What we know:
Blueprint: E1 46-47, E2 53-56, E3 61-75, E4 85-99, E5 108-136, E6 141-169, E7 173-185, E8 192-203, E9 208-214, E10 218-219
Antiparallel strand pairs: 1-3, 2-3, 3-4, 4-7, 5-6, 5-8, 8-9, 8-10
Amino acid sequence: xxxxxxxxxxxxxxxxxxxxxxxxxxxxxxxxxxxxxxxxxxxxxxxxxxxxxxxxxxxxxxxxxxxxxxxxxxxxxxxxxxxxxxxxxxxxxxxxxxxxxxxxxxxxxxxxxxxxxxxxxxxxxxxxxxxxxxxxxxxxxxxxxxxxxxxxxxxxxxxxxxxxxxxxxxxxxxxxxxxxxxxxxxxxxxxxxxxxxxxxxxxxxxxxxxxxxxxxxxxx
Length: 220
């Protein structure tokens, strides 16, 4: 009985990624280290506070919202992703109403949190396989090429607002203290920015006044 044989040869198997690696954009502390508020040593990552937000209402009240003892320390994200920005933050935010207004203050709300901005967002990374197959005679030979094509989509930056607390209060004074809180922003492959904020709303029977404090912006 005649026997036939065929030689099968894998001539070439190659895997290539068409796109280069994404540039690493790990959080790096600002080379100019911020200082704590005057007269305070401050915790690690201490930053100066901004000027208070102040308004004098038409009905005679003086309303003020402010921040003090603030800290914003860039830390390694729990996911270890290079596109995540994570910070360990803290601070005290207070609102008060003084003066001798013609109306009765019925309390209000104090909202405190952080605004995190990113210069460039990573929308998606798409990897598509490609393959080619060639057949030659008289000896069957298969040429196989396998590769990967990559597509990286980037978007303009955006701002994420992290509301830490939204507290209702009675009377004319309110305070919120934040200690050891971690906040983060995902999909960021550019420079990032963070600052605190506190918004105070004060109500009377027929009026409501809203004023915001903004902390100093930290660049990472």
